[in-house]
Amino acid sequence: MSDPGNKISLNGALTVLGVSGLYVLYAWLSGGVRADQWQLLVLFLGCYFVGGAARRFILAFSVFLVYWWLYDSMKLYPNYLFKSVSIQELYNLEKKFFGFEYAGKIVMPSEYFQANLSTFLDVGTAIFYLCWIPVPLVFAFILFLKDQTLFLRFSIAFFIINLIGFVIYYLYPAAPPWYVTEYGFIHDYSVKSNPAGLLRFDQLIGFPLFEGIYSKGSNVFAAMPSLHSAYPLAVFYYGRKLGSRSLNAFFFTIMTGIWFSAVYLNHHYVLDVLAGIICAVGGIWVFEKIRVKPWASALLEKYYKIISAKK
């Protein structure tokens, strides 16, 4: 029996080509189309026109492509152009709520860890931080293969969580703790993204792994909320619906490990982590409330039919 996903409608093809053309135009006007943008576009068009499972896959993961486009676009419109960056204010709040006495002075958790480094923790936290994007994507792929209804719930909730986080980035630009460690409380908008404590892992392995990753960072002043902390909570929440104890334990370990790593590596304050957790809870709550509405349910059903082999 032929796969209905192999059929290409004229309207569908024109829509995809039109959207692709607009994306290229946008990238060109934004300073030129980069190699990674061309690669993503070729992947998208290739999967769509091959048809079948490849088309269903790329249309399903279009949610993540839009997320990537929004994240990447933050480089063009940095949040510090719209509002003043919180540097000392957030630092003082962290010290007020989570400061404690150590070596004769009041320190916050990230400062304590910087004074008590461990090679074991350097390696462990780096491994946890590597899971930030791969784990949600692998989890989404597993859901796409096993339970496309749950895939839609997870991927759209993931997208909403990011929208909430991005809005907060622009409403409250905030410097990460490593910025204060390196530059104090001055406002220097020329500073580039920094792997902070992850540099120790690069030095251990003799390869600039995280230095390369963070050189592509979109915004230094997007510490609040910590979306690093939000993503694994979304994975854990929807992962529980698969009913696997071992998988639940794995996702819980990844989640709590990333939360700890964010502070240990001097990337985030505890307040950033808590804000990321609230973002995740809020995004999931908003989506789960909306999805049961008749209009939302109808849209999800249409999307399900597009990405599913079951027609």
Describe the structure.
By secondary structure, the chain is mainly α. The protein folds into 2 domains: 1-60; 75-307. It contains 16 helices and 2 strands. The protein has helices at residues 10-29, 35-50, 52-60, 62-73, 88-98, 109-115, 119-130, 134-146, 148-171, 177-183, 199-205, 209-214, 227-239, 245-264, 270-290, 294-307, and strands at 100-102, 105-107. It has a two-stranded antiparallel sheet. It is globular and about 70 Å long. The two termini are 13 Å apart.
Unreliable stretches covering 5 or more consecutive residues: none
Distance from N terminus to C terminus (CA atoms, Å) equals 13 Å
Secondary-structure element pattern, one letter each: HHHHHEEHHHHHHHHHHH
Rounded mean pLDDT score: 93
Structural class by sheet pairing and helices: mainly alpha
> Which percent range fits the helix content?
55-70%
- State which percent range the strand residues make up: under 5%
Could you say how many structural domains there are in total?
A: 2
The protein's oligomeric status is single chain
The largest sheet has its strands arranged as 1-2
Overall morphology? globular
The gyration radius over C-alpha positions equals 21 Å
**DSSP strand count:** 2
The main sheet comes to: 2 strands, antiparallel
Number of discrete helical segments: 16
